[in-house]
Amino acid sequence: MPALVVRQLRKTYRNGFEALKGVDLTVDAGDFFALLGPNGAGKSTLIGILASLVNKSGGEVTVFGHDLDREPEAVKACLGLVPQEFNFNIFLPVVEVLLNQAGYYGIPRPEALERAEFYLRKLELWDRRHTEMRQLSGGLKRRLMIARGLIHQPRLLILDEPTAGVDIEIRRGMWEFLRELNAQGTTIILTTHYLEEAESLCRHIAIINRGRVAEREGMTRLLGRLEAETFVLNLKQPLTDAPDLPDFPCILLDDMSLEVELLRGQSVNSLFSALSRRGIEVASLRNKQNRLERLFLDALDKGGGEPA
Ligand code: ADP
Predict the structure, then answer these.
(1) What is the atom index within ligand 1 of the atom nearest the CA of 160?
(2) Atom 23 in ligand 1: residue holding the nearest Cα
(3) pLDDT by 10s per residue, the chain, length 308
(4) Where in the chain is the domain with CATH 3.30.70.1560?
(5) DSSP string over 56-67
(6) Domain 4-223 adopts which CATH fold?
(7) Does this model's pTM top 0.70?
(8) What is the DSSP string of 138-194?
(9) Ligand 1 within 6 A of 41 CB?
(10) Ligand 1: residue whose CA is nearest its atom 18
C-alpha cells in the first residue's frame, strides 16, 4: 500500500489564485521522497492540505489507505508534520512542548515522558529539556520541531524545508537522524531548496512548478540527465581569444572571463591543467547555473507550467 496517493489535487485561494492545478503524486511506503520546486510552486500549499491546515478545492488524498475527507482523524494519526515556520509558545520549556503535543494526540503521560526522553536524547536536546523555547538557537528549534512531529510516531513524516538556515554541522546531524528514521521504516517526504540535500537523502523526487507536477523520477536517473555543467572562470591575465582546448569547449565572455562546459566525469582539475599548459591562470570559478535551477528550467521546457 502506498504511503500517499494524491489525485487531481486542486487549490484555489480565496483571492482566486490557483495554487494547485491538478496534482497527481504517489509516494511508496518506506520511500524517502523529495518535493522540489521554485518559490511559489505550491509545495507548502500541498503540504498544508495533507496536514489539514489548508482546505483543498478538489481532488483526493489518501494516506496509508485512509481518505482525507472520510477519515481525517486516521490520516492525522499516521502523519507527522514539521512545518517551516516556528509555531511554538516561546515561553514553554523544551520538554513541555513535546508533552503538550503528546497530550493533543491522547498519548498517556508516562508513555509521553518516555517518548519525549527518547527523541530529545536522539536529537541531542536532552540537556536542554528545561530550557525555554525562546532561548534555543535556530538549529535547536528545528530539531525540537522534528521531535514534536514524531511524538505520536507517525508512519509518514513530512518536513517543509527542515534545514533552511541551519549550519552545515547541524544539517549533517539532522540528515543522519532522518536516514536512520527512514531505515527503521518511517516514510519521509521533504521539501528543500538544496539539491544536495535531496541528492544525499532521497530515492525519489518530484518537481512541482506553478501548481503542477512537472517531473517524477528516481534520483539517480534524474541526476544522470544533467549531463553537463557550465562554469565561468575569472582569469588572472586578460585574453584576446578563447583557447582552443580539444576536451573543453570555451567561449570568451570578456577579456577576463571564460565560459567552459564540463561533461559528467570531466574534472575541474583536468580543466585547470589544460589551461595552465597554455599559460592561462584562473583566479576563481563559479557555476553558471546551479543544478537545481537547471532541473527547474528543464522541467519548464517539458511543459511543466505555462510561460510566465
Ligand atoms: P511554495 O511552498 O512552493 O513556495 P506556496 O504553496 O507557499 O509555494 O504558494 C504557492 C502560490 O500560492 C504562491 O504564488 C503564493 O503566493 C500563493 N498563496 C499561498 N498562500 C496563499 C493565500 N493564503 N492566499 C492567496 N495566495 C496564496
Answers:
(1) 2
(2) 13
(3) 899 999 999 999 999 999 999 999 999 999 999 998 888 899 999 999 999 999 999 999 999 999 999 999 999 999 999 998 877 788 999 999 999 999 999 999 999 999 999 999 999 999 999 999 999 988 899 999 999 999 999 999 999 988 877 777 788 888 999 999 999 999 999 998 777 788 889 999 998 988 999 878 787 777 766 667 788 999 999 999 999 988 888 999 999 999 998 877 788 889 999 999 999 999 988 877 666 667 777 766 665 444 43
(4) 228-292
(5) -SEEEEEETTEE
(6) Rossmann fold (3.40.50)
(7) yes
(8) HHHHHHHHHHHHHTT--SEEEEESTTTT--HHHHHHHHHHHHHHHHTT-EEEEE-S-
(9) yes
(10) 19
Which residue's entry shows cell 559528467? 264
> Does ligand 1 come within 6 angstroms of the Cβ of 44?
yes
Do 78 and 63 form a contact (C-beta atoms < 8 A)? yes
How far apart are the CA of 4 and the centre of ligand 1, in A?
Answer: 22
Residue ranges matching CATH 3.40.50.300 in the chain: 4-223
228-292, what's its fold? Alpha-Beta Plaits (3.30.70)
Place of cell 512537472: 214
